[in-house]
Predict the structure.
Amino acid sequence: MTMQELIEVKYSGQVDQTMDYAKVAVQTIAVLIGGLVIWRAVIAYQRRQRISRRQNSYFETKYSKHWKK
């Protein structure tokens, strides 16, 4: 839409959907931020679980302990 059409729609009394679009945009941003927060929380929880798990000594060999040297 051109500027003239936007001005005509605004002052003609027709239904204005700007607020609806703004609400949808705010909700979209809120969902994205919430998803990122949940995603990071799950990663932190999984990291703690991985660290707290007991290591199995079955696969520990002399080679696997010193393979980077």
About this structure: The chain has a mean pLDDT of 82. The radius of gyration is 28 Å. The longest helix spans residues 18-52. The CA atoms of residues 38 and 44 lie 10 Å apart.
